[in-house]
Design a protein that fits this description.
With about 180 residues, the chain is an alpha+beta fold. It is about 25% helix and about 25% strand. It is built from 3 helices and 8 strands; from the N terminus they run H-H-E-E-E-E-E-E-E-E-H. Strands 1-2-3-4-8-7-6-5 form an 8-stranded antiparallel beta sheet. The termini are far apart. This is DUF3515 domain-containing protein. Keywords: Membrane, Transmembrane, Transmembrane helix. Pfam families: DUF3515.
């Protein structure tokens, strides 16, 4: 019943409305924190499957879990991304929207020849293959071939971090042409 002197709604109705507003605001805040904290604001990364005959190898099984949870790119931390199902085996990614993708267990890159210009980073030999807007770097001196696709905007930090992990995880082998 409204207050006969002021015409205001009953006190109990005002209290219930105030409590409802607080509960709704708290719910929206919690949902916002959970969604923001997921680290995957862009959603799972869809990747095209590629031929990776050694993705199930013992070397890839050691290398993939050893990879860092985040990569540093020009002072920015790039967290791991979720890969959309069906996710290619022995594949991980970092960052959004321009993701860095690592695939383990690939076949020999066709660009690898005895005259290929290789780069050595932290004792790991890489074959760089330029592409439009990104480069793919292949580890060519380990028992499995590993490819790291890096957008041109990423800088050299991710390559250095991945080289350190590869060097610490997989022993070198002679080049195979």
């Amino acid at each position: 019943m409204p207050d006969t002197e002021t015409g205001a709604p009953p006190r109990a109705l005002l209290v219930a409305a105030a409590v409802l507003v607080v509960v709704l605001a708290a719910g929206v805040a919690v949902i916002g924190l959970v969604m923001r904290g997921s680290g995957d604001e862009a959603g799972p990364l869809a990747l095209v499957p590629v031929d990776a005959p050694q993705a199930g190898s013992a070397e890839c099984a050691r290398l993939i879990p050893a990879m860092p949870a985040q990569l540093d790119s020009k002072g920015t931390a790039l967290p791991r991304r979720t890969i959309a199902e069906p996710a290619p085996e022995a594949t991980i990614a970092w960052g959004s929207p321009d993701s860095i993708v690592l695939r383990c267990g690939l076949g020999k890159p066709p660009e690898l020849t005895p005259t290929s210009q290789l780069r050595v980073v932290s004792g790991v030999q890489w074959l760089p293959v330029e592409g439009p807007g990104s480069s793919t770097w292949y580890v060519v001196d380990r028992a499995v071939y590993v490819a790291l696709t890096v957008p041109d905007s990423a800088g050299t930090g991710p390559l250095q971090q991945i080289s350190d992990t590869v060097a610490a995880t997989l022993p070198p082998v002679p080049l195979r042409f």
